[in-house]
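Supplementary Note 2. Why include the ligand at all?

Several targets in our set were suspected to adopt different conformations when bound, so apo predictions alone were not considered sufficient. For every target with a known small-molecule partner we therefore ran a joint prediction. The input for adenosine-5'-diphosphate is given below.
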Amino acid sequence: MSRARVVAPGGWLGLLGGGQLGRMFAMAAQSLGYRVCVLDPDRDGPAASVADDHIEADYLDAPALESLALQCPAITTEFENVPAQSLAFLAEHSFTTPSAESVAVAQDRIAEKRFVASCGIAVVPHAVIESVEDFASTSDDLYPGILKASRMGYDGKGQARVANRAEAVEAFASLGGSAVLEKRLELAFEVSVIVARGDDGATAIYAPAENLHREGILAVSTVPSPQITPTLEADVVAATLRIAHALDYVGVLCVEFFIVRDADGLAVRVNEIAPRPHNSGHYTINACVTSQFSQQARIVAGLPLGDVRRHSAAVMINLLGDLWFESEEHEAREPDWSAVLRHPGANLHLYGKREARRGRKMGHVTVVAPNADDARRIALDVAAGLGIAAW
Ligand code: ADP
Ligand code: MG
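The joint prediction is reproduced in token form.
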């Protein structure tokens, strides 16, 4: 890897992928004075529409990758499903984070579980399913389970809930490719931890966010986590750091955890890892000294990490495309943002997506307040005003 370290403000940072995570990265990098070039096939994508330059091309387009590398001495990604070989190619020319090896682990559930377990950290009980014959040897204890395609899943896509072996066999045929069959766990709650790690090995770790999912999609993140105990917090922080160090990870990494009840009380299981800023870390934009996106920009540019200190309690609510539809029959219409904006502590973030679709992440709101009770109260009011169910 060529190390054109440091890229001074005013220079170009490259980004592979053009969604909302890329948009927020670009905005953070631009705040630091950088120019951002996005490589993404979508002309109107959330990142391309704010970037200083856009290469409209497929992630595997060699000449396009080459021009990105020529323009940008340092490059990062916002999307774990970019082909690892594209990152490897870019890394031959420019400082590229995270590494192709780290992304390859995170983009394949089989490799991911194997890797996390090899770090001595508990994962969800599961079986690797390479072909339909593998179901014959799956333990009955894994049912009811969730069959997850090993690659390309996100927001609950590429998954099927299965009650028994027969349903699993049927679901496998429609998923295509290899999969993991996970036992469906009774979750006490879910948390995630985000760590920023520089290429000198320095780390900055954010406090855990407590995450509520609805239909497989993140709905609400609350910080500080109302339910976490000091012991569990120490466990998830230690596990996150161990994973980041074992990967020799450079960049922003998120580890999603399930908290489950076992014989001795509450225990931690790793669900999955994301080699990029994460939806559950959006609260850092408004509630922390340095956001997860600003850390990403600092790391790729070779600058020191920022302070992760949280100055406010926060509740982040995702805004899905469903909000644009009053009912099944109606045309899409803009939600009434005054329900959000009349609260001075509510920060509205919209991603500029042209078309609202059900289940599509269109934006988020982060409510900040001096204490957790106020943040929750205001967040519930914002949710009620938008027609989002309480939690
Ligand atoms: P994605 O890659 O789409 O984020 P996840 O595997 O993280 O998919 O699953 C999304 C959500 O579905 C989880 O955050 C959790 O709420 C629920 N879920 C996933 N796997 C399990 C499981 N084995 N047991 C119970 N709930 C699960
Ligand atoms: Mg997930």
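The pocket of adenosine-5'-diphosphate (ligand 1) is lined by residues 124, 146, 148, 153-156, 182, 184-185, 187, 190, 213, 216, 256, 271-272 (CB under 6 Å). The mean pLDDT is 95. Comparable summaries for the other entries are listed in the accompanying table.
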